[in-house]
């Protein structure tokens, strides 16, 4: 089922015609998180406790919906096929590829402003002042990190917990992206979301780094040396692996909401050039293929 969902999502993604008619389910999760944050996250309240309750409510509710859908599929014709289609909603192989490909197309056309706009759709940093190498670095960092968040981790939790596991992971990951920040407004309220996301990505992030190093035929030394430099316990693994596989340097200073943030660097090579984006995208595709192959072999071997 996991392999089928990955293959199907890679082919169709979440089509634009469907997105125009029905918002992606993650948008519904985000709306629920935003509503609870607006109601509960106020000075003078037990912000950490209310933040924890928010995560429990969102993740528990998402898992319950997943369980109900999976249960219902047992009683209708072709329920297993429908379940595979539904599982594609938690995966992002196609959309991640398309976003990076859009940056590459802009560079091929010599259009830096459009490249900035394209990378701005997948990164949180300020992109208006980025030069070509800055855009290339931001794209590769997002590609590596999102390979875990949008592909490996969802597949891992789908494999481990079925549709409830997948939906719970997407709820926690969305909560972390919305409220799991260190700014005063979210530091206490988003603490539980950030810690839950760290925990749920602990194994997948390291596996994502492994897949990138395998597909890139290198990057092991940089991954093991630099991964722990990252402020996140997980994001450094795929990013450092990508830097090592490409022989470039990722990380470093970046501007978020007008403020410059000093970040650690990964790898000892030069800053990436626009030509490295195509190589990075090929490594990403190779890593997806390796994961598919492992799932196929595992499915042939495993007999419950």
Q: What would the principal axes of the Cα set say about the shape?
A: globular
Ends distance = 15 Å
Strand order in the largest sheet = 1-4
Number of domain units:
1
User: How many beta-strand runs?
Assistant: 4
SSE topology string: HHHHHHHHHHHHEEEEH
Structural class: mainly alpha
Structure description:
The chain is 70% helix and 3% strand. The chain has 304 residues and is mainly alpha-helical. The chain has one domain (2-299). A hairpin with a 2-residue loop joins strand 2 (254-256) and strand 3. The two termini are 15 Å apart. The model has no long low-confidence stretch (mean pLDDT 93).
Summed up, what is this model?
The protein has helices at residues 2-12, 16-21, 25-40, 47-73, 79-87, 93-108, 112-120, 132-179, 191-200, 202-216, 220-226, 236-246, 275-301; strands spanning 250-251, 254-256, 259-261, 265-266. The protein is mainly α.
Relevant terms:
3% strand, two-stranded antiparallel sheet
Topology:
Layout: H1 2-12, H2 16-21, H3 25-40, H4 47-73, H5 79-87, H6 93-108, H7 112-120, H8 132-179, H9 191-200, H10 202-216, H11 220-226, H12 236-246, E1 250-251, E2 254-256, E3 259-261, E4 265-266, H13 275-301
Antiparallel strand pairs: 1-4, 2-3
Helix pairs in contact: 1-5, 3-4, 3-8, 4-5, 4-8, 4-9, 6-7, 6-8, 6-13, 7-8, 8-9, 8-10, 8-12, 8-13, 10-12, 10-13, 11-12
